[in-house]
Amino acid sequence: MAEGTILLTGASGFVGPHVVAALTGAGWRLRLALRRPVPVPAGVETVKIGDLAQPLDWSEALRGVDHVVHMAGLAHAGPGLDEALYQRINTQATLELAQAAVTAGVRRFVYLSSIKALSGAFDGPPLTEDAAPAPDDAYGRSKLAAEQGLAALALDWVALRPVLIYGPGVKANMAALLKLAKLPLPLPLGGLQAPRSLLAVENLAEAIRFALTPACPPRRSYIVADPEPVSVAGMLTALRSGLGRGSGLLPVPEGWLRLAARLAGREETFLKLAGSLVARPEGLLSAGWRPPVETGAALARLAGSARAG
Description:
The chain is an alpha/beta fold. It contains ten helices and nine strands.
């Protein structure tokens, strides 16, 4: 069992409760840095912080802390947000906390980055950790800049680059796919067979726990994904299995669907749904990370929990 105290930021979001459970289950003492009060498990400390858009004094929050897990930040919200805001919250605030961690003698700093720091492309070759980063939007650039800033500090840091995360309470694209799966009619999406990398929230929580251990080599960035990619058709099949139904997918060719999307002016949306994006988590797997859940079972459980709710 682990011993020591972790300062955890961003614990009030979708991922947070899973990470709290994984770390407390491994024996860590937790101190959650929160902007507003939220219910926390017994034995978990909290400390109030201000808005990351402004410089903060982290000294009291870091007192007696052995490690930091920094998950707070400005989420990927698509075009329209000021790039300077991404840089302030995702880059500068991260580096301010990291520098304060150096001063406080923190042993390891785990940063929740994003696959967008490596690439935002669809339908390209599989992403690997030795590829040159080429982020294509403000969010990805801000995450990469934070990683580069961490590399310049005298600190044992680990940056985790998760792909699309799914699990109970998920929103955005995966929530939309779950809505499709719930429709009581056949779907013309059986031809969408391009592989996509996903990440179960339980597997991300285990990756964060693993990143705090000596087995995980520091001062580098890691892709985090379920080991085996899955197609949109496979996702819908697993989700409908969790709903107690057959797949009900009609094998309409992908080319026809793409043409229809283009004619409707929705080709970009279609590409985000159907395009291939495979990312290989080779570094973590080689170091000994073992994801606790399998993709198909986790998707089925997600749909089952949604039905129960």
